[in-house]
Write a structure and sequence with these properties.
single chain; five-stranded mixed sheet; Helix Hairpins; 2 domains; alpha+beta; about 50% helix
């Protein structure tokens, strides 16, 4: 259909532009990283601008990486090779990596279910990482709770924080590309605005539901509810 054609054109455009931006950014980053080592005593007036440039280049690199990844998982829809994924092992790996990156934060992992699910491990890893990183970024203090649970309808991944929370009017739009609840806050924490769009796409491709509960000042809880049909155990939920 015409709509499908336009959607393919959009994905191709985003992918091509992202690829083209990578090369100049790599060159700029190289010069920024090299300059301080070439000058023994860099002029103090240049130190702050160089640090700011390095920060912005890193943000652009993260944005391009997310754009390319989103374009990739959208493009391969229908061609995905799925396997049984050990979610407990995957969650443990992601939690260990993020504890290293956020040493001052408490990531509480509870693996109550032992269910494996049929899916794409790389996509699931991306969704999990985005949910936990979002929780860490938007809650300055307090623990981030990550749980893998059983329920009557299927296994559930929950990521919960004690952060600022989200007003109800924003929740329906959270998975839109580049949607910002608080633009100044997003710039401060360095998000790309694509994390939850990626999570939503992964949820759809795995027949899961993304549920969000939040109240301003009371933190947020994100849930991915997977259908029992994707479990390794065919009798799940009986």
């Amino acid at each position: 259909s015409e709509q499908d054609k336009l959607e393919r054109m959009r994905r191709d455009f985003v992918g091509n532009v992202s690829h083209e931006l990578r090369t100049p950014l790599t060159v700029i980053k190289g010069y920024i990283e090299t300059l301080p080592s070439l000058v023994s005593e860099l002029n103090a007036t240049l130190q702050k601008p160089l640090a700011s440039m390095a920060t912005q280049v890193a943000r652009m690199e993260n944005l391009i990486a997310d754009l390319l990844w989103l374009a990739q998982i959208e493009t391969v829809e229908g061609e995905r090779k799925e396997n049984l994924v050990d979610v407990c092992a995957l969650l443990s790996t992601v939690a260990e990596e993020l504890r290293f990156a956020w040493p001052d934060r408490d990531i509480a992992l509870q693996l109550i279910s032992v269910k494996r699910i049929l899916g794409d491990e790389r996509e699931l890893r991306s969704a999990i990482s985005n949910l936990v990183v979002n929780a860490l970024k938007y809650s300055a203090t307090g623990p981030v709770s990550v749980k893998w649970l059983d329920s009557a309808v299927g296994p559930v991944l929950t990521v919960e924080d004690e952060g600022l929370g989200i007003a109800a009017k924003h929740i329906p739009r959270l998975t839109e590309r580049f949607y910002r609840v608080d633009k100044s806050r997003s710039q401060q924490v360095g998000g790309t605005g694509l994390g939850l769009a990626i999570v939503k796409h992964v949820a759809v491709s795995h027949e899961a539901k993304l549920l969000v509960e939040s109240q301003p000042g009371e933190g947020s809880c994100f849930r991915l509810v997977f259908p029992a049909s994707r479990c390794a155990d065919p009798d799940f939920g009986d």
